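User: These chains co-purify. Model them together.
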Amino acid sequence: MTGPRRHTTDEMQDHDHDHDHDHDHSHFDEMELRVRALRSVLVAKGHVDPAALDVLIDTYERQVGPRNGARVVARAWADPAFKAWLLRDATAAIASMGYQGRQGEHMVVLENTPQRHHLVVCTLCSCYPWPVLGLPPTWYKSAPYRSRAVRDPAGVLAEFGLSLPPGTQIHVADSTAEVRYLVLPMRPAGTEGLDEEQLADLVTRDSMIGTGLPRQPCAPGRSPAFVPQPAGRRAFP
Amino acid sequence: MNTDRVGRAAAPGPRDLPDTSASPGHVTHADLGGRERPGAIVPEPEDERFHAAWERDAFALTLAMGASGAWNLDMSRAAREQLPAYDGLSYYEVWFQALQQLLVEHGILTADEIAQGRPLVPPLAGLRVLHAADVASALRRGAPTERAATVPARFAPGERVRTRTGASPHHTRLPAYARGRIGVVERVHGVHVFADAHAQGLGEQPQWLYHVVFDGTQLWGTDGSAAAVGLDLWESYLEPAGREEPASGSP
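Assistant: Joint model of the two components:
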C-alpha cells in the first residue's frame, strides 16, 4: 500500500485542516516511535512500572474530569452552608466530596456575581485544577489563550460567545503559583425545583474556567429536562 | 495562521513586552501573558483528553518519572520553558522533550539510550519507582507546597504593593507583564515553597504568597483593557507601594 498510514481515531481525521496531512501523519508516526522508545528503555532499566502508566492514563482519561467540579458547583448552589465553606476553605470543602490531591492541593473558589466575573488562565504554563476539572483542554494550554486572556479578557470571552452585562467587572486570575482556581458560576434562573444531580448537568467545564456560563434549563414541562451540551459528546477512540 | 488542535503556536509576532530571553543563563519562551500570539482559541469537547496515543505515554511517563525524586515540578517547568523550539512545539512535545533532557541531565539515561530505546549502561541507583498499586495514593496525596509560617506576613489585604522590576536570571513565576506594577493585595495564601529557589535546586525557602490584583490600566495603559488581573506572587517579588498619590490638581 502506498501513501501514509491511515490513522483511525476521529481526532486524527479532523484536526489540522491547515496543515499538510502527509507531513502531519509522518510527524505523528515519528512521535509514536520516539515515545515508545523512551518508554521501552525506562521500563527495561526498571525506572518505570508499565502498569503504573496504564493507571495514570486511565485515571485522567476516564475517571477525573469536569463532572467532579460540576458536582461541587451543584452542591454549592443547593446548600448555602456548603457554599460558605467552599468560599472560606475550598480545599477542605472539595476534599469532603472526595476530590483532592495532585494539582489541586491548594484550592480557591472564585464566586461569580452580577458585579464580578472571574476568568482563570495560566500565562506561564498550564496550571489547572486537575481533581475537579481533569486535564485542561488544548485551548487553555495554547499561546493564543494564554497571551490574550490577561490583555483582552473581554475579547476572549467574546470568542467564546460570552458577552457580560454592562457594569460587570472582569477579574482574571493568572495561576502563577500552586494555588488552583475554580470558578463558581451563578446559578441560572428557573432552577429552583432541581436537585443536585440535575443542577450538575447544567454546569459546563467552561463555566468553571470562566469562559462560559452554565446551561439554561429547558422550559418547564419539556422533556428531556435540559438543553443538550452544545459542544457535543464524543466517544473515546 | 491559527494554532492547530494540538496547540502548536502560530509564529511569534512582534514583542512589545520586555524580552524575557535576554537574561544570561536562563531563557524562557513560556512567558506569554500580553504578548502577540495571534490565532483562534479552538473549542474542545469536555471529554476529549489526548489527541494521539503517544500523548498518553508522554503524559504518563512524565508523571511517573516526576515521582522518581530526581527532580521537582519547578525544575520540570524550568526545563520546559527553556526549550529553544518551545514556540513551535505542541504541548506534549514540550513535555516529552523536557523529560528527555531531564533524564540525561540527571544521569538516568544517556543520549544513546534514548536514541536506541534500549539500556546501554547500568541503571542509576536510588531512584523511587512509582508502582501501579501506589498511583492512586500518590495522586491523592499530591505535593502540597504550603509550609508553617515562621515569620509574620509582611503585607495584609488591601495594602498596595509594587512588583520587582528587573528580569530574572533564573526560573521565576513573576510574568514580564506584571513587573514593576502597582497592585493591591486581595488575599493571603499562606507560606509556600518558593518556586524560584526550588527550581534551582536551592531548597524550598518558603515565603508568604499573596493574590495581588492589578488594574488593567496599570498593566496595559489607558488604551488597553481595564479588566483587573490578579496573580499569585511571593513576598520577595513585592515591596510596599505606599499610599495612592493624591489626585493632581488638589491644593
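Confidence is low (pLDDT under 50) at residues 1-15 of chain B.
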